Amino acid sequence: MVLTYLHTAARKSELFTLKWADVDLNGKRIRLWTRKRKGGLEADWIPMTTELHVALSERFEHRTFPDHDHVFVCEDEYNLARDFYGQPFSSRAHWLKKLCERAGVEHFGLHAIRHLSASILDDTGYPITVIQALLRHRSATTTAKYLHKLRGLRVVLDDAFKSPEPPVARQIARVVSGNSVAKENDRPAPRKRSDRSFLRVVK
């Protein structure tokens, strides 16, 4: 399911409602339905990557519920998921959180994968028309605003993490030590042991 989100830049609900009738394995394409437009419910066919085609073909061949219309259904018989066994998803917040914990990364939402798909294409240098087709925006202006927002966020993050003395780090250091943080190449001489602050452990 994560792979499908990444390779199609699908919106969260679009894979919850995805049916096998929307997966053309022979034509190597997938149909996504959206309500994000003024015309109501509309569909777009997205070409499948080779990796996604292999994954969905294998899922179709070994699906737990051969007679079920939906591609992704609950297959967990434990805990709270027991009541939803064999039903299509309406949300998967806990599932994604567990995957993030298992991978040792910060928790992110499903929509962040859509951002990642666009960022990968943008970083690789693909034209805006290609990214627009993947995101299925009617207007290239919408895609441009989308990418501008992602680029701006990336610049801010790069600037914050590359700075030798991040503002937040300076503030924390002042609270802890009560003094300004000295630069790496201009540190004062170490204080005498009697002058150093210390913690007293009281039992």
CATH architecture level-2 label of the largest domain: Orthogonal Bundle
Unreliable sequence segments: 166-203
Q: What is the 3D form?
A: globular
Fourth-tier CATH superfamily name of the largest domain: Intergrase catalytic core
The CATH topology of the largest domain is given as hpI Integrase, Chain A
Binned, the helix content reads: 40-55%
The total strand number stands at 3
Strand order of the largest sheet: 1-2-3
Number of helices: 8
CATH class of the largest domain: Mainly Alpha
Question: What is the string of SSEs from the N terminus onward?
Answer: HHEEEHHHHHH
The mean pLDDT is: 78
- Structural class based on helices, strands and sheet pairing: mainly alpha
State Rg.
25 Å
What's the number of structural domains?
Answer: 2
Give the gist of this structure.
The chain has helices at residues 2-8, 12-16, 50-61, 93-103, 110-124, 128-135, 140-162, 167-177; strands at 23-24, 29-37, 40-47. With 203 residues, the protein is mostly helical.
Detailed description of the structure:
- This protein folds into two domains: 1-91, hpI Integrase, Chain A, CATH 1.10.443; 108-179.
- Helix 1 crosses helix 5 (110-124), helix 5 packs antiparallel against helix 6 and helix 6 crosses helix 7 (140-162).
- By secondary structure, the chain is mainly alpha-helical.
- The protein is globular.
- A three-stranded antiparallel β-sheet has the order 1-2-3.
- Helix content is 45%, strand content 9%.
- It is built from eight helices and three strands.
